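User: My instructor asked us to take a sequence, write out its structure as tokens, and then describe one feature of it. I'm not sure where to start. Here is the sequence I was given:
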Amino acid sequence: MKLSKKANVGLTVALVAAAAVVITLLDLKIIGSTYVTNIIKLSAIYALVGVSMNLVNGFTGLFSLGQAGFMAIGAYVVAMLTTDPAGRAGIYYVVPINPVLENIRLPFLVALILGGLVAAGLALLIGAPVLRLKSDYLAIATLGFSEIIRVVLSNNELAPFTNGSLGLKNVPSFSSMWESLGLPGSGLWLCLGLVAICIAIIVMLINSSYGRAFKAIRDNEIAAEAMGINLAKHKQMSFAIGAFFAAIGGGLLASHLTAIDPNQFKIALTYELLLIVVLGGLGSVTGTVIGAFVYTAGKEWLRWCDNPLSIAGVSIPIFRSGLRMVIFSVLLMVIVLFYNRGLMGTSEFSWNGIFGTLAKWGRKLTGKHGKEAKQ
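Assistant: Let's start with the prediction itself. The structure tokens for your sequence are:
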């Protein structure tokens, strides 16, 4: 049974209203806890970066692994430009801060957009030579670029700006910015609102003529070029837009953690983002969002695996730091081997799809019970 347009709208409004109520209760700490709120914020940030990665990998067909580097750029721009100038002496205590940066302080949203623009500009700069590569070669090049950014940020020669390997702290948090507006809560609405706006912009881009050009390049570059699509232009555009929103996600991460350092943007972060995209489904925005929340919640739930475990006085040797990532590595292998389309494949969330799946499962169960009754 296919739902009418009115029924679809009604169900969507009801879902959004229910989500708004739950978010408000969490934000005001009426339900849940700070721990739960922090997991939701981190999941939302990973969802945004995952969608930006999916735009490049899933919708344009470019195997890029440079999102962690672009996140680092956004995080550092926000951290450098939004901290209180009065407290910067306590941050740059080894190498004095550069006089140009010493008294500059920008509003959070301005610094966030500026970080995105810096990352997009750098993506355009390196995109011209790098995007000529294909498949694994492009992945290696972008992964190396991401690691170069991390090493440069930790370099002591840039310490007057980035504070070197010590990183930056005292970044304004979502809760402090929310309170500065005279609003109660932990800033959950601010984080989720910015993420929702960014993802909505990406969705509108995907559904535009540019998005159709990206998909044409993904499906068949030769056919896309024959139809008049400028491959170099659209690849660079997708790469730069993905970098922009990845940097926005990095800036949000800096505000969520309130402290950053280069070690937070190692190759392991790229691995996590790739797992989220593959888990949700290459070419699915809603799949990536679901994958981000499933991965982040699962990672927290499996935290006990990183601690020593003894049963009846016998120590289990496999339970040690890093076991969580081993479990997720196995999960990634299982998905690639047996369910390579991910949770959503290339499909998006729809009520017709949900009710259709439930009806399909119902028919299978009914048929099974029918066979059992005949026996």
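For the description part of your assignment, you could build on this observation: The radius of gyration is 23 Å. Try explaining in your own words what that tells you about the chain.
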